[in-house]
Write a structure and sequence with these properties.
The chain is mainly beta. It has two domains: 34-162, 3-Layer(aba) Sandwich (Rossmann fold), CATH 3.40.50; 171-432, TolB, C-terminal domain (Neuraminidase), CATH 2.120.10.30. The chain has four helices and 31 strands. The protein has helices spanning 9-18, 62-72, 96-101, 146-162, and strands at 34-37, 43-47, 51-53, 76-78, 106-115, 118-127, 132-142, 171-180, 183-192, 199-204, 208-213, 219-224, 231-236, 242-246, 252-257, 263-268, 275-280, 286-288, 296-301, 308-312, 319-323, 331-332, 340-345, 351-358, 361-368, 374-376, 384-388, 394-401, 404-411, 417-421, 426-432. Strands 2, 3, 4, 5, 6 and 7 form a six-stranded mixed beta sheet that branches. The protein has a five-stranded antiparallel beta sheet with strand order 1-30-29-28-27, with no helix packed on it. Strands 10-9-8-31 form a four-stranded antiparallel beta sheet, with no helix packed on it. A hairpin with a 6-residue loop joins strand 16 and strand 17 (275-280). Helix 2 (62-72) crosses helix 4 (146-162). The two termini are 32 Å apart. Keywords: Cell cycle, Cell division, Periplasm, Signal. Residues 32-133 form the TolB N-terminal domain. It is found in: Periplasm.
């Protein structure tokens, strides 16, 4: 449900979804990337362009992709190659004094070797002050997939420095909208986290909403209006096979996967009121989790995988609630404004993120679950659809920027940001994919 509308079930069924997308213009498959704000505490790191042996594939260089990945988190400040005093590719060529003079804390060096249809990368990460190697390995990938190799290296570098797994090898799902012959065209797309290598997974003249990743990253659940009403589908990405899983009378919306991938949370109004259910995907058996006169919607599992967060207007307006176990009495989480909706918890059980209204503007905020402290994270004013990176360090959401609908990624504390606008048109409904080992 969009944060601009909150109606009782008799009025909310189609209106809440039909107005998700306001502007219609052309949208191409690939997103752009625009760094908009960095963190003051960013760690200086030098990613030296990798030396190359043999014919390398055309396109972005591996070192450039690694550098861009680290920069987009806001946690690192990378050194432009033109400011480097030398371009070492192995330990023997690294003069730590030079990198200290440049104010660098870490330096990454490496080389690429082409052999047939494969590219091998040998890379090393050094702590400049201690003059120690803290990471070093050899990795390989098909020559046609060096972008994945670069994301893998960035993940390893990120983890070596922060102690937290990187999320650069994960995927984004999102929905774009353009027009074809005067008719709307909705596209469900999947891309790398930097917006590259986007692929269209579904096209429709009717809205596509609420994409949600299965925990193994192989499926997407989403809501489609292709039959003239909201219906929940599960889509296998490798085969393209689509399965209709919820087509009850009334509202079928807001799917969210369980940790084991065997069930979906969803909002159904088949009995006259919007309630939260759990569906076993093997048996299609439904379990009703809420039973209240109010609207209960937008469920998501908490970090334990046993409880759920959801949005409800049982206190007079949309607020975030937490149910620790099925059937337990829900506890209200948010109190900072009259509107808080679409909860998305982190994977450690520390925070829940959501859309927060203040002074007629909609922001992304978070509440620390232990203390109840609320923090507004965004400076934009028309924000919706937050989704947390699987490592908990970044957050993606949809907003308007310079008259266009774009995706924006911020650090989990709101200290840095980058935007992913479509080259033209609208892009909404982001969902960050899981870490898949």
């Amino acid at each position: 449900m969009t944060h601009r509308i909150w109606h009782k079930p008799s009025r909310m069924l189609l209106v809440a979804f039909a107005l998700i997308f306001a502007a219609v213009s052309g949208a191409r498959a690939e997103l752009l990337i625009r760094i908009t704000e960095g963190a003051d505490s960013a760690i200086p790191v030098a990613v030296v362009p990798f030396a190359e042996s043999g014919q390398m594939p055309a396109g972005d260089k591996v070192g450039s992709i690694v550098q861009a990945d680290l920069t987009m988190t806001g946690e690192f400040r990378t050194l432009p190659p033109e400011k480097m005093l030398s371009l070492p590719s192995r330990r023997e060529e690294v003069y730590f004094r030079d990198w200290r003079l440049l104010g660098q804390r870490y330096v990454l060096v490496g080389s690429l070797t082409r052999s047939g249809d494969r590219v091998e990368a040998r890379y090393e990460l050094f702590d400049v002050n201690r003059e120690e190697r803290i990471l070093g390995e050899t990795a390989a990938a098909p020559a046609s997939n060096t972008r994945s190799l670069a994301h893998y290296i960035a993940d390893k570098v990120y983890e070596a420095i922060t102690g937290v797994p990187g999320a650069f090898s994960t995927k984004l799902a999102y929905v774009t909208l353009d027009t074809a012959n005067g008719k709307p065209r909705y596209r469900l797309q999947v891309s790398d986290v930097d917006g590259k290598r986007a692929r269209i997974r579904l096209e429709s003249q009717e809205p596509i909403l609420s994409p949600a990743w299965s925990p193994d990253g192989k499926k997407l659940a989403y809501v489609s209006f292709e039959t003239g009403k909201p219906v929940i589908f599960v889509h296998e990405l490798a085969t393209g096979q689509r399965t209709k899983v919820a087509d009850f009378p009334g509202l079928n919306s807001a799917p969210a996967w369980s940790d084991d991938g065997r069930s979906l949370l969803m909002t159904l109004s088949k009995d006259g009121n919007a309630e939260i259910y759990r569906m076993n995907l093997d048996s299609r058996q439904l379990t009703k989790l809420t039973n209240h006169w109010a609207i209960d919607t937008e469920p998501s599992y908490d970090a334990s995988g046993k409880g759920i967060f959801f949005t409800s207007d049982r206190s007079g307006g949309p607020q975030i609630y937490h149910m620790e176990t099925p059937g337990a009495e829900p506890r209200r989480i948010t109190f900072g404004s009259r509107y808080n909706a679409r909860p998305r918890p982190d994977n450690e059980g520390k925070y829940v993120y959501y859309v927060h209204q203040r002074d007629r503007a909609f922001h992304i905020a978070r509440t620390e679950l232990k203390t109840g402290e609320e923090t507004i994270l965004t400076r934009t004013e028309s924000d919706e659809s937050p989704s947390v990176a699987p490592n908990g360090r970044m957050l993606i959401y949809a907003t308007r920027q310079n008259g266009s609908n774009v995706l924006t990624v911020i650090s989990a504390d709101g200290g840095a940001a980058y935007s992913l606008p479509a080259s033209e048109g609208d892009v909404r409904e982001p969902a960050w994919g899981p870490l898949v080992r």
